Amino acid sequence: MSHSSAAYPSAVPVGVDTTRASIARVYDAALNGKDNYDVDRQVLDQVRTVAPQVNDLAWANRDFLIRACRFLARAGIDQFLDLGSGLPTAENTHQVVQRMNPQSKVVYVDNDPSVLVHAQALLASNSRTRIAEADIFRPLEVLGNDTVRRELDFTRPLALFHIGTLHHYLGDDGPALTQTYIDALPSGSFVAIAHFHDPETAEHSELARKMEEKFIHSPMGSGRFRTRDEIQAMFGTLDMVEPGLVRCDDWWSDGPHLTPLSDVRNCIVGGVGRKP
Ligand SMILES: C[S@@+](CC[C@H](N)C(=O)[O-])C[C@H]1O[C@@H](n2cnc3c(N)ncnc32)[C@H](O)[C@@H]1O
Predict the structure, then answer these.
(1) How far is CA 164 from CA 9, 15, 57, 150, 222, in A?
(2) How far apart are CA 57 and CA 272, in angstroms?
(3) Average per-residue pLDDT for the chain
(4) In a domain, 7, yes or no
(5) Measured from the CA of 114, which atom of ligand 1 is nearest?
(6) What is the residue with the minimal CA distance to atom 11 of ligand 1?
(7) Local confidence band at 12 (pLDDT 50, 70, 90 cut-offs)
(8) Residue 157: domain span
(9) Which residues line ligand 1 (CB under 6 A)?
(10) How confident is the model at residue 7 (pLDDT cuts 50, 70, 90)?
(11) How far is the CA of 94 from the centre of ligand 1 (A)?
C-alpha cells in the first residue's frame, strides 16, 4: 500500500528529493511499499504501458534474494556484504540470515538518502548489522570503506550480493567491476547476482527492449536488460551453484509453479557463484 507525499508531508526524510525518481523508491513502489512518491510511481505507470505485470520483476528479484539468503546461511556463511540494500521491507537480508544464525553479520551498502535514513533507524538496535554509504559501482570505494573493513573479516568466507543492482550500471565493463569484488574475496566465498534479462527469444526480447526503453528514458534513468552471456560474464570464473544462472523464479523455487509465470518473469535472472 502506498501513500502520497502530499498527504504525509512531515514523513519526507531530510535530504530526500521527492521531485526526482529514485531507484530504491521505484523498487519500493513495485513491492507495494510505503516509502515512495508520485514521481516514483509514475515511472512504473510508464513501464506498465508496455508491461502490465512490471511489479513481478521486483517480486521475482526479492524472492530470489530471500531464497539465496537461506541457502547461504544454511551453507555456513555468517558474513554478508549486501550491495544496494534497498529500502527496508519485509524479510530483509539481516532478518533472514540472523533468524538462522543470530551471530551473522550483515553490512548493507547504498547511496540513496531515503535508504540510509530508514536503515539507520531500523538498525540502531542491531549491533550485528550496519549500513555503509558508498557507490556500489566503485568497488574500491566499497572495499576500502571503514564500516565494511571493520565489520567484515576478509580472511573468512563471506557472501557478496549484487541483487537487483547491476542493471542500473549502464557501462559495458560490468564483468571488470564484479571481478574487482571477486578478487577481494577469500576462497569459499559466494557471489549472488540478479539482473534484468533479455531472453533473446522473439517474444520476450521485444518485451525486455520495451521495458528498457521506458526505464532508461524515465526520470530514474537506468535499467539495462542484458543477455545471458553478458550477465554470466559478471560471475567471472566462479563455480556456479546448481542450477546456474536461471530465471529468478527457477532458482530453487519454493515449490512447483502452479500457474504459468507472467511474461516479465522471463526478463530477470539470478544465480550464485562460489570462489574455489
Ligand atoms: C532495485 S534495489 C535492490 C534492493 C535489494 N538488493 C533487493 O534485491 O531487494 C537497488 C538498490 O541499489 C541502490 N543503488 C543503485 N545504484 C547505486 C550506487 N551507485 N551506489 C549505491 N547504491 C546504489 C539503490 O539505491 C537501491 O537501493
Answers:
(1) 29, 24, 10, 26, 12
(2) 18
(3) 94
(4) no
(5) 25
(6) 84
(7) low
(8) 55-274
(9) 23-24, 27, 61-62, 65, 84-86, 110-112, 115, 135-137, 163-165, 168
(10) very low
(11) 16
Determine the average pLDDT of the residues in 100-104.
97
How many domains does the chain fold into? 1
Pick from 55-69, 91-105, 109-123: least confident: 109-123
**Phi, psi (rounded to 5 degrees) for 159:** -110, 135
Domain-located, residue 4: no
Q: Of the residues 20, 110, 118, which should be mutated to test ligand 1's pocket, given the most ligand atoms within 8 Å of the CB?
A: 110
Instruction: List CB contacts of 262: < 8 A, sequence separation 6 or more.
Output: 53, 56
Q: How far is the CA of 167 from the centre of ligand 1 (A)?
A: 10
Mutate to test the pocket of ligand 1, among 28, 83, 85, 141 (most ligand atoms within 8 A of CB): 85
Output the domain CATH number for residue 68.
3.40.50.150
- Answer whether residue 29 is part of any domain: no
Is residue 49 domain-resident? no
Of all helices (H) and strands (E), which one includes residue 182? helix 174-184
What does the block give as the cell for 1? 500500500
Determine the distance separating the centroid of ligand 1 and the alpha carbon of 165, expressed in angstroms: 5
The pLDDT tens digits for 117-145 are: 999 888 888 999 999 999 999 999 999 99
